[in-house]
Write a structure and sequence with these properties.
alpha/beta; six-stranded mixed sheet; Rossmann fold; 22 helices; globular; about 500 residues
């Protein structure tokens, strides 16, 4: 069955998976969506006998139907290799009544590695399939983790340049150091004087600037994206939800057909949306629990069916979730209104012009069948890190702690005893200041790498290579610009 892709803002046109991957975002500003949801072609029992690479292939072949088996397996083999520090790729730990799906064992110690390790291979294959001769320019906005994972994936890749924009002062010190020390002649890192939403909006505006796109096309370039708005980012994430179910089945923790919950710390909505895709292709999912921090625009939506970004932007200890405009939520809105692109456009225009939109009762009912929201305050996050460590010795990063705190509250309030998987998105070593302060109750003012060593002493968890590698690495990128000058920085980098 061939799967084609349509824009959420114009469902009259269809493109191949490889073309959608190269484009990143549709010309009309919409996001590419499959024209139908396929079904898994092997049983859950058969899936449970596969390793991560095998599961990834079974998932990706369903959506990337214009890739040959040889092409897909090549991409998967080269993505999920020794850059991961565990043979299993995605281990699971049972801690205090829930399973933690550890997605941070890749080269940049965050869940973004799971998709950004494979995206360069998918993109290069897609370029060949579509006879693309121009150099590809990846534009990416990051709230902390996507940036480094994208830089690491595309550094040195022939025929590709990448520009990453991040909110200066809005990421952790370790996250920033990871990005600004990135080597490679084809990479550029720019801090902006604004928040993540500003960076994301700026990137989208560049994509939508037809005159500028014509200018770079004449210079031999074309834009694409490494954010989760790119379907080549989203689909590989579906694989680890399928693998989590298969892993539980393999180890006798559930029986085939049993429902499970996933609890996902959520900012831009791409990660949890991948869980929904897993449900649609055949994984028995009860609830996808959307865990927000104090920027709880999604939680408020699930409670009220009103999406309202007109509120203060809060800097929290879980910066990768400090987002008020969740780009991937558009994909769920599109599905919930029956894939009616005209209706979706109206909602997105209201969000752009008024900062708010309200969905219908029918749309809310569609969404509530799969999703439920929760949020955790800064105090709840800190207490959860301490309580889990004191009780079990397991160390949560701040984002995973948001999900863990939300799950604890959900379990207590609903008495739902469904087997639950908490999606653990980053190593605690990326957020040592907040993690240590939560555990020992002391406000730490030391250098971040001193805190890395202290966390190592306290927890006994090995310091990841990704952290040791940047201890004394020189800063190679120190550009900071106003959000209005993002296009100018792209022009300077491309020497237009």
């Amino acid at each position: 069955m061939e799967i084609l892709y349509k824009s959420t803002r114009d469902s009259s046109k269809s493109v191949s998976a490889s073309y959608a991957i190269i484009k990143g975002i549709a010309e009309d500003g919409g996001l590419f969506m499959p024209d139908q949801f396929p079904s898994l072609e092997i049983s859950l029992e058969e899936l449970s006998k596969l390793d991560y690479k095998g599961v990834a292939y079974e998932v990706m072949k369903l959506f990337f139907t214009d890739f040959t088996e040889e092409e897909l397996r090549y991409c998967i083999e080269h993505a999920y290799d020794s850059k991961f520090d565990t043979e299993e790729i995605v281990p699971m730990s049972f801690v205090d009544g829930a399973y933690y799906l550890e997605l941070f064992h890749g080269s940049t110690i965050a869940f973004k590695d799971m998709a950004l390790s494979i995206l360069p291979y998918l993109m290069k294959t897609a370029a060949k399939k579509n006879n693309i001769n121009e150099k590809i320019v990846i534009l990416t906005a990051t709230s902390g983790d996507t940036g480094k994972a994208a830089l690491a994936g595309f550094a040195g890749v022939e025929g590709v340049k990448i520009v990453v924009f991040y909110p200066k002062g809005g990421v952790s010190a370790i996250q920033e150091k990871q990005m600004v020390t990135q080597v490679g002649d084809n990479v550029k890192v720019v801090g902006i004087t604004g928040n993540f939403d500003d960076a994301q909006t700026g990137v989208k505006n560049i994509f939508g600037d037809k005159e500028f796109n014509e200018k770079i096309n004449k210079a031999g370039y074309r834009f694409s994206s490494a954010n989760s708005i790119n379907i080549g980012r989203l689909i590989p994430q579906v694989a680890y939800y399928v693998y989590a179910y298969a892993n539980l089945l393999k180890n006798g923790k559930i029986e085939e057909g049993d429902l499970i919950n996933f609890v996902v710390p959520t900012g831009n909505f791409g990660n949890i949306l991948a869980g929904y895709f897993a449900k649609r292709i055949g994984i028995p999912v009860n609830k996808l629990i959307c865990a927000s921090n104090e920027n709880k625009v999604l939680y408020d939506f699930f409670e009220s069916k009103v999406y309202d970004r007109n509120r203060d932007f809060i800097l929290t200890t879980s910066p990768s979730m400090d987002i008020l405009i969740s780009s991937n939520f558009e994909r769920l809105i599109y599905l919930s209104c029956g894939c009616n692109s005209d209706k979706n456009i109206q909602f997105m225009n209201d969000l752009k012009e008024k900062g708010v939109y309200t969905v219908t009762d029918e749309m809310k009912q569609f969404i509530d069948e799969s999703f439920i929201g929760g949020f955790a305050s800064e105090d709840m996050v800190s207490k959860r890190i301490k309580n889990v460590f004191d009780k079990t010795g397991y160390v949560l990063d701040t984002h995973t702690a948001v999900a863990s705190a939300v799950y604890e509250n959900y379990e207590n309030s609903t008495k739902d005893d469904t087997t639950s998987v908490i999606v653990s998105t980053a190593s605690p070593y990326k957020f040592t200041r907040a993690v240590l302060s939560s555990i020992d109750g002391i406000k730490h003012d030391e250098d971040d790498f001193v805190l890395v060593d202290k966390l190592n002493e306290l927890s006994g968890i090995d310091i990841p290579k990704a952290v040791n590698d940047i201890r004394n690495a020189p800063v190679l990128h120190n550009t900071v610009c106003d959000k209005e000058d993002m296009k100018k920085e792209v022009e300077n980098f491309l020497v237009l």
